[in-house]
Design goal:
By secondary structure, the chain is mainly α. Helices cover 59% and strands 2% of the residues. Bound molecules: fe (ii) ion (2 copies).
Length: 321
């Protein structure tokens, strides 16, 4: 019995995100809109801008989460065949991946409910590329290879959204805002997913052959390609639907007087036309880029082939109430 693997979800039935935990009737309160506009766009009146920004970010995240959930189910089913290369003995990894998949589909469900409630809109895209993204993981690669690639791509977004959550918690320590609550509850689940990712990195990737590692790298590259395309489509669709650029006049942080400053006010480099890096959660100045749009391969090189225990400092949720 791999007790540490089983222990990842020991408290999952007590600490989890479910849409029924959300105070939906408060999502569009004036005070809440003021708070998220101030926190994410720098100005209390930026209601339309912050709604558009969150629509783009959370819709994109929900689409990725649906893909993660369905691919995890596929890996579980493929690894359960008699002739599959052994991925597990016993039930611990099945249990871990099943909890992971179930939570991801509830995240997608909750994020979509949130942005529809927040915006009063229900935006559909012509093609969310789900079939193409799912097909990437329907090949002959072993379940180990597929799981390693999926965890490596999910890990980046899970880490970045955790930083976003911590930023909102710093601005709203008592979690009065429904948006902070959404990120907090989501973070309870993500802390477990990150532990599952670490398991894949430490125990599965290290056992792969050179050719299997190449397969992992290929799957990661293709997944990233679709995730980037998804981001581009979400950005275009949201800008078109809302008729505004949520990144225009973005700010980069607090000035010496304690007030938010627009990027162009504070940063002479940006004044000259070169945008600086955003902190997670800030509106983004570059079309097509958002919270999840970091360079995954760079992070992967740092994390995939090393034991990434330092990330526990970022994802340390053990003492949460
Ligand atoms: Fe998630
Ligand atoms: Fe996750």
């Amino acid at each position: 019995m791999q007790q540490h693997l089983f222990d990842i979800n020991r408290q999952a039935h007590h600490q989890f995100l479910h849409p029924n935990k959300m105070p939906w009737e408060q999502v569009r309160d004036e005070e809440e809109l003021d708070f998220i506009a101030t926190s994410l766009c720098g100005h209390r009146d930026d209601h339309d801008k912050v709604v558009a920004y969150l629509y783009k970010e959370l819709a994109q995240l929900a689409e990725i989460e649906m893909h993660v959930a369905s691919t995890l189910v596929q890996v579980i089913c493929e690894a359960s065949r008699d002739n599959a290369r052994q991925l597990w003995a016993g039930t611990e990894l099945v249990h871990t991946l099943s909890c992971f998949a179930a939570e991801e589909i509830q995240h997608a469900n909750t994020f979509y409910q949130y942005i529809r409630e927040l915006s009063g809109r229900d935006i559909k895209t012509a093609d969310n590329m789900f079939a193409a993204r799912a097909a990437l993981y329907e090949g002959e690669e072993s379940p180990r290879v597929k799981l390693a690639a999926l965890c490596a791509t999910a890990y980046v977004g899970e880490s970045v959204i955790t930083v976003f959550e911590k930023r909102m918690k710093a601005l709203d320590p008592q979690v009065k805002s429904p948006f902070t609550l959404l990120l907090y509850l989501h973070g309870l689940d993500e802390a477990r997913h990150i532990k599952a990712d670490h398991y894949a990195i430490d125990h599965i990737v290290t056992g792969l052959s050179r050719s299997e590692l190449q397969q992992v790298a290929d799957l990661i590259a293709k997944t990233e390609h679709y995730n980037a395309e998804l981001s581009r489509q979400c950005t275009e669709r949201v800008k078109q639907e809302f008729g505004l650029d949520y990144a225009e006049g973005n700010y980069v942080g607090l000035g010496a007087d304690g007030h938010h400053q627009r990027a162009a006010q504070r940063d002479p480099v940006r004044r000259n036309g070169t945008p600086r890096r955003r902190a997670p959660g800030q509106c983004h100045p570059q079309a097509g880029r958002g919270v999840l749009d970091v360079r995954p391969r760079t992070r992967l090189r740092l994390n995939l082939f090393t034991r990434s225990t330092s990330n526990e400092a970022v994802h340390g949720y053990e003492s949460r109430p």
